[in-house]
């Protein structure tokens, strides 16, 4: 639950990982944590290849305004736990550089054997492959219950040039870090989904996971590509 000792400890661990990968980051703002796979939790996002944040911010802002959502942030993000983001955007010395996805299994009994997370190599995705996906739905956020989402995600047309990857048999000691947004290169991002169709061995634990986004702010002019 947000604000608990376990939550704060996990955030600190994630922040350490992010800063090791991106040492120039000045401040990190985490979104709410989303649980999948357990009883009463969201199901894995299987069968729908997507990008959480459509690369064109103007399209996202127009859609949100039409549906009377709160004013969109500069990155077109959802209205969840935005207080840290508000502070970062209000600081004229900072600029957004990256939005990272942080995804981790929570399985105790066995590694991930079904619904693994897979993603595209961004170097194999062409601009014409990317389409807007307009979303109005609710999902369950840890510590908040059901939350309304007004969002424009990215959908992907198939191309034989695209290459896809996943990490087999992930354990709860492993973490995937991937890109939702790169301000300097809008297509340097990872389309992703959970892979369905894998039979779970009898008695094995189904995939359970926890995910969040890390909004990475740099000193003005210091973000990659500035």
Please describe what this structure looks like.
By secondary structure, the chain is of the alpha+beta class. It is 15% helix and 31% strand. The protein is built from three helices and ten strands. Strands 1, 2, 3, 8 and 10 form a five-stranded antiparallel beta sheet that branches. A three-stranded antiparallel beta sheet has the order 7-4-9, with no helix packed on it. It has a two-stranded antiparallel sheet with strand order 5-6. The longest helix has 17 residues. The termini are far apart.
Secondary-structure element order, as H and E? HEEHHEEEEEEEE
Indicate the radius of gyration in whole angstroms. 17 Å
Question: Could you give a short account of the major beta sheet?
Answer: 5 strands, antiparallel
Give the overall shape, derived from the CA principal axes: globular
Q: Mean pLDDT across all residues, rounded? A: 89
The class by helix and strand makeup works out as: alpha+beta
Strand content: 25-35%
- Give the end-to-end Cα distance, rounded to a whole number of Å: 36 Å
Helix content: 10-25%
Poorly predicted runs are 71-82
Number of strands: 10
Assembly form of the protein: single chain
How many helical elements?
3
């Amino acid at each position: 639950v947000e604000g608990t000792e376990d939550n704060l400890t996990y955030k600190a661990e994630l922040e350490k990982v992010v800063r090791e990968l991106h040492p120039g980051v000045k401040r990190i703002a985490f979104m709410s944590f989303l649980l999948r796979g357990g009883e009463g939790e969201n199901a894995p996002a299987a069968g729908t290849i997507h990008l959480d944040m459509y690369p064109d911010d103007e399209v996202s802002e127009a859609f949100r305004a039409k549906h009377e959502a709160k004013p969109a942030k500069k990155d077109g993000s959802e209205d969840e736990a935005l207080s840290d983001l508000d502070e970062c955007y209000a600081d004229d010395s900072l600029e957004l550089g990256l939005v990272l996805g942080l995804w981790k299994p929570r399985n105790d009994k066995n590694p991930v054997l079904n619904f693994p997370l897979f993603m595209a190599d961004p170097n194999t995705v062409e601009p014409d492959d990317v389409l807007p996906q307009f979303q109005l739905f609710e999902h369950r956020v840890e510590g908040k219950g059901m939350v309304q989402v007004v969002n424009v995600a990215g959908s992907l047309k198939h191309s034989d040039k695209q290459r896809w990857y996943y990490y087999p048999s992930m354990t709860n000691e492993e973490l995937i870090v991937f890109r939702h947004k790169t301000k300097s290169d809008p297509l340097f991002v990872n389309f992703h989904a959970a892979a369905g169709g894998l039979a779970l061995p009898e008695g094995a634990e189904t995939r359970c996971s926890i995910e969040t986004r890390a909004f990475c702010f740099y000193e003005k002019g210091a973000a990659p590509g500035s």
